[in-house]
Amino acid sequence: MPSPKPRSRSEKSRARPASFFSFKRAQRAFGDSPSPEELIGKGVRFVKRIYALRVIGLSIGFFCVAAAFLQNPVGWPLWALLIFHGYIWPHVAYRVALSSKIPYRTERMNLVADTGFGGFWIIAMHGSLVPSAVILAMLSMDNIAAGGTRLFLRGLLGSVFGALIGLLLLDFRFAPEADLYTVVACLPMLALYPLALGKSTYDMSKKLAERSREFETVSQRDGLTGLLNRRYWESLLIEEFDACHEKKRSSCLLLLDIDHFKNINDTHGHLVGDEVLKNFSQLLKENLRTDDLIGRYGGEEFVVILQDISLREAETLAARLIEQVRQHRSSDNMLWGCTISAGLVSFHSDMEAHYSWLQRADHAMYQAKDRGRDCLVVEGR
Ligand SMILES: Nc1nc2c(ncn2[C@@H]2O[C@H](COP(=O)(O)OP(=O)(O)OP(=O)(O)O)[C@@H](O)[C@H]2O)c(=O)[nH]1
């Protein structure tokens, strides 16, 4: 014997399988935890961003050190190393990071290696103050922007390590004064590098903000119809309930249910059923006001918060909507012959909470079903 048909929303939701809106379902929709490939993809973007910055920073940083080398001459091996670091290392670091298993991690090591070079150049310049300060400041800025305090501290250690190697290999004598050429050679680094870093950080935060906006939208919408999903819509109902209480606003709640929707699925299949749900959602959007909050409550049930409206106006709006559905029934196949039953309730200060409002609308809608469907029942007139 078939089980009796549920007669109220609470019965309906109890009748649904427990996993109807379950976490697993959401996980499937948004994907499980990222695969290693996805992680590597993120690392690649990071490597590319740092590559561009390194090419700019080291190619102009070259002149700071070169000017100090001209002031206090050094041998060809140091010049060769400087050219390597300024113009070859950025490409080597890029290749090494991209060909590693986890580019993100390798790139962080490359950043620490940069600070090692920095410490070494400070010793090679005999502690020339201006270029040393510029190099340290730029490297620290890089590390803090790329990896926060932790990478900054690692970078400091890297600089100390590089300086120790310099002290071991080079004949260091402290000569802090920088001549005018050296100071001038440091200016491009001071002026241009912060611009490049600032631009790169700004672009990244803009992208992040866009992503978070996209995610927010996805998490508030029903996947099939694009209407507000049940969870988000219910949070808006709570807000509306409070606003009605505090500001003595008059708003109405409209609950709509497609009649005999199961027959559509059974006769024409679920794809047609989905099409009907989408078309009906479109009809709702077209026939309601732009600030009405339309949600899909589940299955073939829809809910609308009609803000700041008298019951009479809301009734006209709802009746027009039902009429529109009827017209589609005879004129085309958009709704495959479906009709709707609706319950309308205006806010009343004696309501205990938002769910009391919802329960009354639910009750009104089921009265409409009992009256033979394809009609509107208004409660609390
Ligand atoms: N195609 C499709 N069907 C759905 C979806 N969600 C729920 N349903 C179906 O909607 C049907 C709802 O059936 P019932 O609750 O019996 O309601 P009904 O047939 O409209 O009957 P009344 O409400 O009494 O007029 C069930 O067959 C569900 O499987 C969906 O996203 N897509």
Automatic annotation (TrEMBL):
The residue ranges of the GGDEF domain are 249-381
Answer yes or no on keyword Transferase. Answer: yes
Annotated EC: 2.7.7.65
Question: Known Pfam families for this protein?
Answer: GGDEF, MASE2
EC class name: transferase
Q: Name one GO molecular function term.
A: diguanylate cyclase activity
In terms of Gene3D superfamilies, this protein maps to: 3.30.70.270
Q: Does Transcription appear among the keywords? A: no
Question: Where does the UniProt annotation place the signal sequence?
Answer: none
| Positions of transmembrane segments | 51-70, 118-139, 151-171, 178-197
Keywords, A to Z, come to: Membrane, Nucleotidyltransferase, Transferase, Transmembrane, Transmembrane helix
The record's section on PROSITE patterns has: GGDEF
Protein name per the record = diguanylate cyclase
